[in-house]
Amino acid sequence: MLYTSDQLSKETRRWLEGDNGVPVFTVYGAVEALKIAFECGERGGLHVNADLYPVRILTPGGREAAPGETGEVIVSNLVNRATVLLNYRLGDLAAPLETACACGRTLPRISYPVGRVDEIIETASGEFIHPIRFREVMNGIEGIARYQVRQRKDYSVALDVVPAPGAGGEDLRRRVQRGIEEEFAETLHVEVALVSEIRRNANGKTPVVIAYRRPEQLPDAPGSVRP
């Protein structure tokens, strides 16, 4: 199975490969650069098609990220001759990896994308939290249909949960709150609430994470609908 688009959760990949015996391979691309990187059989990250789309990964301060250090993906498109696209900020987050791979390829390697810049939550202490950490907690809790993480101006987070049919109640809210507290400890204050639906934004979408690098400039969020 070859997939592209959003990243698969660990649980989905385990279900496909372990329970169903379907090999899964990742292809990383974008509208601006179609085939940036691909996964080999070693499953240790992604090989960059450097002759087509060379990639740089920069930290928030503009420094080249070290191997294993997460930064923003910067890509150049050397294929499209109609529109020159050099050092383009995709908004994705990943980390460079050591080039050596057991498959024998010598192409540069990067990690699987871990999120987007505009989905990163910043704590009051300046720590950055990737949305995948919320996903891993929520995927491990039964009874959740949808959820949304909304950052507030005081750097706290509102976590709205839509219960699955037949689920819900205070027990579900407590299980979610406990899972979040175990994951983030004292790093982040999260308030969990059960809602009947999550409202769409002005673009008609319901993003999983609404986050801003400067929470004090956060506009009024549409919020969710309480039961």
Features:
227 residues; alpha+beta; Luciferase, domain 3; GMP Synthetase, Chain A, domain 3; 2 domains; six-stranded mixed sheet; 3 helices; 18 strands; 30% strand
Structure, explained:
- The protein is α+β, with helices and mostly antiparallel strands and 227 residues long.
- The chain folds into 2 domains: 2-116, Luciferase, domain 3 (Roll); 121-225, GMP Synthetase, Chain A, domain 3 (2-Layer Sandwich), CATH 3.30.300.30.
- Helix content is 15%, strand content 30%.
- It has helices spanning 10-19, 131-139, 170-184; strands at residues 2-3, 25-28, 37-39, 46-48, 55-58, 71-77, 85-94, 96-97, 109-110, 115-116, 121-122, 128-129, 144-151, 157-163, 190-194, 197-198, 209-210, 224-225.
- The chain has a 6-stranded mixed β-sheet, with no helix packed on it. Strands 5-6-7-10 form a 4-stranded antiparallel β-sheet, with no helix packed on it.
- Helix 2 packs across helix 3.
- The longest helix has 15 residues, at 170-184.
- The radius of gyration is 19 Å and the shape is globular.
CATH class term of the largest domain: Mainly Beta
| The CATH topology of the largest domain | Luciferase, domain 3
Overall 3D shape: globular
Rg for CA atoms: 19 Å
CATH second-level architecture of the largest domain: Roll
Average per-residue pLDDT, rounded, comes to 84
Counting DSSP H or I runs of 4 or more residues, the number of helices is: 3
Query: What is the helix fraction of residues, given as a range?
Result: 10-25%
Largest sheet: 6 strands, mixed
How many beta-strand segments?
18
Approximately how much beta-strand content do the residues carry? Answer: 25-35%
**Low-pLDDT windows of residues:** 215-221
Q: H/E series, N to C?
A: EHEEEEEEEEEEEHEEHEEEE
Structural class: alpha+beta
Distance between the ends: 40 Å
Strand order across the largest sheet: 1-2-3-4-9-8
